[in-house]
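REQUEST ID: PR-0412
SUBMITTED BY: lab tech R.K.
PRIORITY: routine
TASK: structure prediction, single protein chain
INPUT:
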Amino acid sequence: MEMKIKKVSNGWVVQVDRDDEDFDISVIQNTEDEVLTFNELLIHIENELGPPTSRHSEKRTKILSLPGDKFLGELSKETKDQLIYLRDFCNIFLEDKNE
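STATUS: complete
OUTPUT:
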């Protein structure tokens, strides 16, 4: 399998060649949020090339967008939701391991 990624003016073009004749082309279009668009690209790459995992796997990849450690502005609802998810995950995981 081979993956080709090309940055274009309105986003990213991803071509996945599975064998000599089978291929997929995906377009990840820019949104107003450049970081979330890039996250979408990384998630697409993970889905195509990443190792298979489940909720029961010892290790999994999780792609998040988080605020910079010096960010002083107002957080969006989506960012707050991701931070709450991350906090809750860490609390559950750490509580289970300490018992």
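NOTES: The first strand starts at residue 2 and ends at 8.
REVIEWED BY: pending
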